[in-house]
Amino acid sequence: MSNSILTRRSVLQTGAVAGAGLALPTILTAGSHSGYTNAPTGGTVTLGFNVPQTGAYADEGADELRAYELAVEHLNGGGDGGMMNTFSSNTLEGNGILGKKIQYVTGDTQTKSDAARASAKSMIEKDGAVMITGGSSSGVAIAVQGLCQEAGIIFMAGLTHSNDTTGKDKKANGFRHFFNGYMSAAALAPVLEARYGKDRNAYHLTADYTWGWTQEESIAAATEAMGWKTVNKVRTPLKATDFSSYIAPVLNSGADVLVLNHYGGNMVNSLTNAVQFGLRDKIVNNKNFEIVVPLYSRLMAKGAGANVKGIFGSTNWHWSLQDEGSKAFVKSFGTKYGFPPSQAAHTVYCQTLLYADACNRAGTFNPCGVGEALEGFEFDGLGNGKTLYRAEDHQCFKDVLVVKGKENPTSEFDLLEIVEVTPAAQVSYAPDHPMFAGGDLGACNPGA
Amino acid sequence: MDAIILQILNGLDKGSAYALIALGLTLIFGTLGVVNFAHGALFVIGAFCAVTLNRIFSISFETIDPTKTDFLGNPATIKTTYLEHWFGPDPAAWMTDWSVPLAILLAVPVMLLVGVIMERGLIKHFYKRPHADQILVTFGLAIVLQEVIKFFYGANPIQMAPPEVFIGTMDLGVWLGFEANAIAYPYWRLVYFLFSAVVIGAVFAFLQFTTFGMVVRAGMADRETVGLLGIDIDKRFTITFAIAATVAGIAGVMYTPITPPTYDIGVELLVLSFVVVVVGGMGSLPGAVLAGFLLGIVESFASMNEVKNILPGIDQIIVYLMAIVVILVRPRGLMGRKGVMED
């Protein structure tokens, strides 16, 4: 026999507890109302800027952070608007994104994949970032891109030049504005042929990680196609600082060109060592010995000093470009910080504007909607001429700059001169090109 | 053959840096019994003394040149160094050109001071603590020093040039009977090797032929007895620490034209130098020098493509492999005293 008596009070109590219990999962997954991770509520939206603030690429990371802050300022209606004024799309009106004021959080990648993933995860889970962007290394970019795909977050890559980022490791939630190793090689090869001829023997020193491998593969294929022979390909540890024992064998290898597939501190040190060993003064096979650096940046050129004079390479963008977009960006950045922006700063500024514009056009922050808006998007006015965000691999296709270390710099920033602007058509490739094969973009993941 | 000689030269050059750092490490371990993980940071402080002197020489005042424009199209500012303003163009150019060797004059007092402050302010409190505590505190100090340097100088490598007279290569091949340019070696790397030999020789002579050195050596052998004789061994050891710091510092100064200095260069050199100390024998000064050069040469040979083709990645592990073999076969190291590390 039961003694239980149903009272009004107990019914109300039980109902309240049961109701709260049923609602709990929905409350805990904050964005699930909208069907995607970290859907913004209220009047603000949070972006996550994941850049190297310590480690070898900290200076590049610092420049990226400056550009992100400038982009946020412009998008929120501050400053002179920079490239928003020259951007071909006209959805950006200085009122944030979709009317929500932009706020941001930052993370330190330390140029280490695990640290970069941890900081991105923290920004997504703790800070509610709806988009992650940044990075100065392909290893980091690929790792964070994978994380964002799993988390249902858009990843707008920063400085990453490996073919793999939009090749075998491409992801539906990841987008790259920066160019890649194949494009560098395709732009450089004709210039190298015109300057150094078809009969050359090249020796490659290559940083032993994803970027180095794909850069080496790309430049070796492009130079071999025009008649050059590859004498040797030597992998060097990423942590190496003294390259003398790798440079010394070049002297008597029969090579008359040294290709340094190195970036950042690696490039500064290997080039310095190559010049120390007198490679640039040598005559081999009755030709002047030459050095090529496929991927250049102004910050690297600054580190290498006078050693870069006359050396060819490629770059994604340079502050001396005279199109309206570049001039507007250099003016904004230069006025705010007192020096011209680097290519890393340029690419992340563009990525932030492109993301904001895609959200506005899609009318949502949902990664699938944003991705759809970016796929196949053609634009102009961001400093690289007409550009296409290709739908098949989420890679931007635009003109590539071939540059040379300036012989007589007029200032501390005037280190590279543009030799040629290679049209986008010349550096384009099929989505199923062998150097980019093996990956699958997959479907967009909205998370939640 | 020419390739082998080149790699031997490279090895001697790398070994010079290892030997100089390992010498200081051994001196500190032998005298104070302290495992100093901040020794690599002392090398870096020395390197940045050279950068600092170069920056001091570059301090300039600005004037506006209305005939030129900057990157924003505004009238350009022209910088003139105070050095040039005070001494004239030629002496200023000479001082800037020779800023690396001149930086030794700055580095010696700075490193002596850093050494004394480090030993008196921190290290002496850890003499009687376990080695693990010593490693933790000195490693922590190394990280702090490293971050301080990064704060002031940034993370990117800073290009430092040797004096113009030492730019270029010396054709050693002709002297050895090879054809012209078969063995061309950079002048500055030869200078560095000779400099290291002189410093190592000076340290050994100092310890061997001076009363101070005799006391330090006696202290290394039996600290307690030396103390009982009424000699203030602690004071000697403080000076020894400062000397070890100075050796590491001037090694860093002269290394700057070889590899552009960065705030974190000390970590890699420190780890390798510890391996050198272990291979040479903890507490053995000749062992540290011998192992420094030996490991430098072995590392250079392991970088050769002919070797890497047979054993991929060997260049990255050879030094540690050697250390493992030495620890297993001869725990006291190549020239270590019997009983040390053999308990």
What does this molecule look like?
The complex is a heterodimer of chains A (448) and B (343). Chain A has 448 residues and is of the alpha/beta class. Chain A has 2 domains: 216 residues, Response regulator (Rossmann fold), CATH 3.40.50; 134 residues, Rossmann fold (3-Layer(aba) Sandwich). Chain A is built from 13 helices and 17 strands. In chain A, strand 11, helix 9 and strand 12 form a beta-alpha-beta unit. In chain A, helix 2 packs parallel to helix 11, helix 3 packs parallel to helix 4 and helix 8 packs parallel to helix 9. Chain B has 343 residues and is mainly alpha-helical. In chain B, the strands form 2 sheets. Chain B has a two-stranded antiparallel ribbon with strand order 1-2. Chain B has a two-stranded antiparallel sheet with strand order 3-4. In chain B, helix 2 packs across helix 5 and helix 12 crosses helix 13. The longest helix of chain B is centred in the first third of the chain and has 31 residues. The model of chain B has no long low-confidence stretch (mean pLDDT 87). Classes of the chains: A alpha/beta (448), B mainly alpha (343). The interface between A and B is large, with 50 and 47 residues.
SSE inventory with pairings:
The complex is a heterodimer of chains A (448) and B (343).
Chain A: H1 8-28, E1 44-51, H2 58-75, E2 101-108, H3 113-125, E3 131-134, H4 138-151, E4 154-157, E5 174-176, H5 181-196, E6 201-207, H6 210-225, E7 229-236, H7 244-251, E8 257-261, H8 265-276, E9 283-284, E10 287-288, E11 290-295, H9 298-304, E12 312-315, H10 324-337, H11 343-362, H12 367-374, E13 377-379, E14 387-389, E15 396-397, E16 400-405, E17 416-422, H13 424-427
Parallel strand pairs in A: 1-2, 1-3, 3-4, 4-5, 6-7, 6-8, 8-11, 11-12
Antiparallel strand pairs in A: 9-10, 12-16, 13-14, 14-15, 16-17
Helix pairs in contact in A: 2-11, 3-4, 5-6, 8-9, 11-12
Chain B: H1 2-32, H2 39-58, E1 60-69, E2 75-81, H3 82-87, H4 89-97, H5 99-121, H6 131-153, E3 169-171, H7 172-175, E4 184-186, H8 187-209, H9 211-221, H10 223-228, H11 233-255, H12 265-280, H13 285-302, H14 305-310, H15 314-329
Antiparallel strand pairs in B: 1-2, 3-4
Helix pairs in contact in B: 1-8, 1-11, 1-12, 1-13, 2-5, 2-6, 2-11, 2-12, 5-11, 8-9, 8-11, 9-11, 12-13, 12-15, 13-15
